Amino acid sequence: MIRTTIIDALLAKYKGEMLEAQANIEVYLANPVGIGEHPDIIAAIDEQITLYTDANEKWNTVNDEFDIDPTQEDWDAR
Questions:
Q1: Taking a C-beta distance cutoff of 8 angstroms, is the pair 37, 10 a contact?
Q2: Does the pLDDT at position 75 exceed 90?
Q3: CB neighbour class for 58 (10 Å; exposed up to 12, middle 13-18, buried from 19)
Q4: DSSP letters of the chain?
């Protein structure tokens, strides 16, 4: 039970990090002028892509490499 709870928490953490990076990228793309503290929009988006990629790789590693109960809810759908 604790193993499943820890794995679920890790997956939720990484999914949240991916969603956060996606939201930031969408804001930068939709209104790059409004982001005053980031004069280099390309660098700011690149940083968010790196954060997304890191979280996605961790999510995939936990999902692929650890024995996840196949009856659990599909985390890809979240």
A1: no
A2: no
A3: middle
A4: -HHHHHHHHHHHHHHHHHHHHHHHHHHHHH-GGG-TT-S-HHHHHHHHHHHHHHHHHHHHHHHHHS---TTS--GGG-
Q: Which residue matches tokens 């961790």?
A: 58
Measured from the Cβ of residue 10, the count of other Cβ atoms closer than 10 Å reads 16
Q: Cα 31 to the chain's mean position, in Å?
A: 21
Q: What pLDDT was estimated at residue 72?
A: 56
- Asked if 43 and 55 count as a contact pair (C-beta separation under 8 A), the reply is no
Nearest to 39 by CA among 51, 28, 30: 28
Mean pLDDT calculated for residue range 39-67: 93
